[in-house]
Structure formats: C-alpha cells, structure tokens
UniProtKB/TrEMBL annotation:
Protein name: JmjC domain-containing protein
Top-rank taxon: Bacteria
Gene3D superfamilies for this protein: Cupin
Length: 387
C-alpha cells in the first residue's frame, strides 16, 4: 500500500512519461525505484559539504535564497516572475542560446525575447546559460550565497569562467537528454518542478546508457530505465520551489520539466570535492578540453589545483570559523573516500601528478604512497609543500 507521498511521486513519473517515452515504468519498477529516490532534507552547510565529500547527490530544502532586495521579501514564485518581468523590460542586446524541444533547434535570443517566449507559452523550450555575473541580472540575483565556498572564483580568469552562474528557465515538457558536466553543480529552484534522473557516467556507459558529452553521437543518447534501475549508482529526485539540488560531476543526468521552471544554477569546486574532481579531470580528461583545439584551456586543472592548495595553506593560519565556512573540516573525509574508491594503479598515476599531489600532501590521510616518490613534472608558482 502506497502512502500519499509515493502516489504523488508516481503521478510525477507518469507525467514525465507523457513527455519522454523512455520513462517506461511499471508499478513493480516503481517499488524498486523508491529505493533510489533522493528525498529533500533540510539544508545545513555541513550536510551539503558531507554530500560533496561523499559524492552523493542531495536535495536540500531551505537553502538561503539568492534573490536580492527588494525582491527577496516576495515569495519565491513572485520573485521569479518579477525577474522575468525585468528581463522583458531589459534593453540588453546580448543573446543567449535557447533550445527548442520540438526540433532540437538552438536559437539565439535577447533576454526580452526569452521573456516574451516564456509569457506566450506556445513553445516548449529551455535555457541554461543566461549568465548572471556582469549582466543586469546581477542586480536581481546575488551569486555570493550559492558560490561563497567556490574556489573556482579564486583561480585564473579561465577557471572562473567555468562557474557559469546562470538563470535557468525551462517550459513544462522540456527534456534535457543524458549528459554530464565538468564540475559539481548546484540548482536552486524558485518556481516549478523538474524530475532529475542520474547515474554514474562510466558505470552507465558500461551498462549501455549513453552520455551526449562523453560519446560522439548523432542521435539522442540511449536511455533504458531497466538498465538504469539495475545500477547501484542510480538515483532520482524531484526538485521544487525552495529545493537546491547538489549534483556531483560524475553523475550523468536526464532532466524532465514537469511544471514551468525558473531557477538558478552554477558549477563549483570547493574543499570537500576538490580531490575527487581533480582526480577525475586528470584521469578522464575534462569536458572543457574536448573541443579546445587551440589548447587555451590546457592549464585550467593546474590553475584550479594551485588555488585549492593556496586556500588550504592559508586556512591553517585562519580562525576555525573561516575554515568551517569553506568546508576545511571535510578534507579528511574526502581524502579517505578518494583512497577507498580509486584503484592503486590510478592512485599511483595521480600521486606522480603535482595537480593532485600538491593538494593531497596537505591533507592528513592514510595515503598509500610515500611523499618521497618523485613528481612527473612541476607546476609553476607552486607554494612550498607542507606535510
Ligand atoms: Fe547538466
């Protein structure tokens, strides 16, 4: 016998199926699926940092709203609509890429044209790169709340640009097919609801679940709900107003908009997730290098690694409160998780790479390799190491 919460989730999945036939579930599948559901839990900074260190997706209710005064006194939904109204009045001539669901076409539109499309409600569309920083949107939305532990902002210009702090708009029925992103992400919902389905990228590829960013595809990435359900890393959630989804970068995701959605999203590197992200980027290669034919982003991992290393060294001389705000206390847990997760061959490769080792050596953890082993190369401007 299902309770009211499960019935509501089943209805949400049934609605998702009307937009995407691959969400093909029986009631028996749903019973299995409930074991993979990520429920919303009350936000605390510690809970967020623990999720980052453990690489577990989390839905956190009650994250401080990023809406600035005077709109912050409105309810989230009214604030979202006021922001879209400001977009409609904007004279900003910059254009942003909008994806149309009907034919997958991308069109470039100005903010006032996006607002017009939103109000007309005649097209199913989505936009995820309406940048907030250094645009009129920054007067309305404060990036600091969602990004004050983001070490990307302390790195080079190129690394900072990976934050991609954005206003997200998505019409009911929009489907974003299976893909992954470079850093971990946060998604704060102001209005609407989305279904997120996610799984470990490489376990998924082995099980036949495709990822548009990790494969060269000419068709929609293949998704099979039974194959997904068979994977230990399979997770799903519904994100609604006042929820923030934290999603680790190693999770490929498929997203279906259940009700017209407005939110704020961004990517980040912080102390609790820095080791796992840098390990993956070195070992798998970051997505930002995929089409970087001029190698203009070749140094980004090193830039980010140096910013992390400097932060760790600086925090040793700061008050505990400063370290606590940045997740300094979660470094040990993140290191233990990396040691437990990575095979020795991969750890040996990472241990010879200063972009990983310069951080790892500054964290007290049972590293399986000696500090006496030489590095394969040196990073420029690297602060002296301390163990
Ligand atoms: Fe994404």
């Amino acid at each position: 016998m299902w309770d009211g919460g499960q019935e509501a989730l089943w209805e949400s999945l049934s609605k998702a199926r009307s937009f995407d036939a691959s969400i093909d579930l029986s009631r028996i599948d749903f019973d299995h699926m409930m074991a993979r559901y990520v429920p919303p839990r009350g936000y605390s900074r510690e809970r967020l940092f623990k999720a980052m260190a453990d690489r577990e997706p989390a839905v956190l209710a009650g994250y401080p709203s990023p809406v600035r005064p005077p709109l912050d006194v409105l309810g989230l939904c009214d604030a979202a609509r006021s922001i879209v109204k400001r977009m409609a009045e904007s004279s900003d001539e910059s254009t942003y890429s909008v994806t149309m669901r009907a034919d997958g076409r991308r069109v470039q539109l100005r903010p006032r044209e996006i607002a017009e499309l939103w109000h007309k409600q005649t097209e199913v569309f989505g936009i995820s790169d309406l940048y907030i920083r250094n645009t009129f949107m920054e007067e309305l939305i404060d990036p600091s709340g969602l990004s004050n532990f983001n070490l990307l902002l302390k790195a080079s210009h190129g690394a900072r640009s990976q934050e991609m702090f954005s206003f997200v708009i998505s019409a009911e029925g929009m489907v974003t097919d299976s893909h992954s992103d470079d850093p971990d992400s946060s998604n704060f919902c102001l209005e609407g609801r989305k279904l997120w389905i996610f799984w470990d990228t490489y376990a998924g590829l082995a099980a036949g679940l495709q990822d548009a960013e990790r494969l060269l595809l000419t068709t929609i990435p293949r998704f099979d709900i039974k194959a997904w359900l068979s994977m230990p890393s399979a997770r799903w959630c519904i994100v609604g107003p006042n929820d923030t989804l934290f999603l680790p970068a190693n999770f490929t995701h498929k997203v279906i908009t259940l009700e017209n959605y407005i939110g704020v999203g961004g990517f980040y590197v912080s102390l609790p997730n820095c080791l796992s992200l840098i390990a993956d980027w070195i070992y798998r290669g970051p997505l930002w290098s995929k089409l970087d034919r001029k190698s203009s982003k070749a140094m980004l991992i090193g830039d980010i690694s140096l910013a992390v290393q400097k932060t760790i060294l600086r925090l040793r001389d700061c008050s505990p409160a400063v370290g606590q705000a940045l997740g300094y206390g979660f470094l040990d847990l993140s290191a233990q998780n990396v040691i437990r997760r990575l095979p020795r061959s991969q750890m040996a490769m990472l241990w010879s790479d200063p972009r990983f080792r310069n951080i790892a050596e500054n964290i007290a953890a049972p590293w399986p390799l000696s500090n006496d082993l030489p590095l394969a190369f040196q990073l420029g401007n690297s602060p002296s190491r301390r163990s």
